[in-house]
Write a structure and sequence with these properties.
This protein has 407 residues and is α+β, with helices and mostly antiparallel strands. The protein contains nine helices and 20 strands. A hairpin with an 8-residue loop joins strand 8 and strand 9 (298-302).
Length: 407
């Protein structure tokens, strides 16, 4: 039966071959065309997807890696930029806060005070070399500045600074504060800083600086202490300004549970205004709190041996200090008060023959209060066992007699 069925189909095809074969040919061609079209469509879709992916990747790279033109560094090619940078450094050396405010986009009061204090030790900036690269915005410049800083009664120290200089709406130049940079500006400047010639510039100045410091270890020590002294002086100024703006208040402290009486005092009773600033040294690591109570918020800690400025010694066992430019409180039992030089008689003066340490006691292992550069002078209070007792920023300090000349 099955055989007869296929025989019948074969006979039909043979009999009607002129009709069946063209139909089969058309059907085969149609199927082939459909398959080819589908394959071509899939290929096109793949190519489009790949192109879109490549475009996205290129866009992302363009966003994360800004295109910068690598123009070789050349010193002092732009007269306007050089004159502007020179004005900025002259203002820094003079502590000219008015000019600094005019050339900087924003500058804090703390920074202005810092430059004022630093100018007492800096004589000049010289040998200015201003290398510039095109900035990320129209009219802006990234300036790489080499200089030599002349320290009073000392020697020149090489250094460099990167300044991002822009123009305001009036076309005037200003130094943009790094805290105000956009993400795009930061990315652009980072890319420029990684260019070969900029890296070589930084390395050259670092080598010069490190060679000088290795040959003059006393200079390296002096620079470190100088920075500490300037910051301490700024803290004292801010504390004094804060005290002037706050009216004197009467502090009421509870005497104890049994008596229940109140003890009334003012800060003037403990620290007269003409006594000068008082200091103390922490005898151990101790908490600094926001008020004179063990339950008050903890602002931080000072470690044993740290020197703090005292504003007030209270009868309730707490001492009010200057902590990071603000008011803080420490239990008095953990502080050792330093002797003030305000009421001591001056018997002469001393002048340093070379850079010499100023210590808190007549001992080479005592805490170092600071340094005295060669040529600088201090008031002499007494001479004790090879040490000169001096007035150092209102406090008693000690300097080895061998390194100074007495007047």
């Amino acid at each position: 039966m099955h055989k007869n069925k296929w025989s019948a189909i074969r006979d039909f095809i043979v009999k009607n071959c002129k009709i069946v074969f063209p139909i089969l040919l058309v059907a085969i061609v149609a199927v082939t065309v459909v398959i080819a079209l589908n394959a071509n469509k899939e290929k096109q879709e793949a190519e489009v997807a790949q192109a879109e992916e490549s475009y996205v990747q290129e866009s992302q790279m363009a966003e994360s890696e800004p295109v910068t033109e690598e123009v070789p560094l050349t010193a002092n090619t732009d007269e306007e930029i050089y004159a502007f940078v020179e004005t900025y450094y002259n203002a820094k050396s003079l502590g000219d806060t008015e000019t600094l405010v005019s050339v900087c986009e924003t500058i804090s009061e703390n920074d202005l005070l810092y430059y004022e204090e630093l100018s007492k030790y800096i004589d000049y900036y010289s040998n200015l070399e201003v290398y510039s690269k095109q900035g990320p915005t129209e009219g802006s410049v990234i300036a790489y500045v080499y200089f030599k800083m002349g320290i009073i009664n000392f020697q020149e120290v090489p250094g460099y600074e990167t300044l991002y200089i822009c123009r305001n709406e009036d076309g005037n130049l200003y130094i943009k504060n790094e805290n105000n940079l956009t993400d795009e500006e930061k990315a652009y400047i980072k890319t420029v800083n990684e260019q070969v010639d900029v890296v070589e510039f930084n390395n050259r100045v670092n080598v010069e600086y490190n060679e000088l410091m290795s040959e003059n270890p006393d200079l390296l020590e002096y620079l470190g202490l100088l920075g500490t002294q300037v910051k301490a002086a700024v803290g004292e100024i801010l504390a004094a300004q804060n005290a002037e703006t706050v009216p004197e208040q009467t502090n009421i402290e509870t005497a104890g549970e049994q008596g229940g009486d109140a003890v009334v005092q003012t800060s003037a009773e403990v620290a007269p205004a003409d006594a000068g600033p008082m200091y103390a040294t922490a005898t151990t690591t101790v908490n600094v709190r926001s008020s004179d109570s063990e339950n008050a918020d903890k602002l931080g800690k000072v470690t044993g041996g740290s020197r703090v400025q005292v504003q007030e010694v209270r009868v309730n066992g707490w001492t009010k200090i200057v902590y990071e430019g603000k008011d803080g409180y420490i239990k008095s039992e953990y502080l050792l008060m330093e002797e003030s030089a305000a009421n001591l008689e001056t018997i002469g003066s001393i002048t340093a023959n070379t850079t010499v340490n100023v210590r808190s006691a007549a001992n080479e292992t005592a805490e170092r209060l600071g340094v005295l550069a060669g040529g600088e002078s201090l008031s002499l209070l007494a001479v004790e066992n090879g040490w000169c007792k001096v007035n150092y920023n209102g406090q008693v300090g000690y300097v080895k007699s061998d390194y100074v000349t007495q007047q």
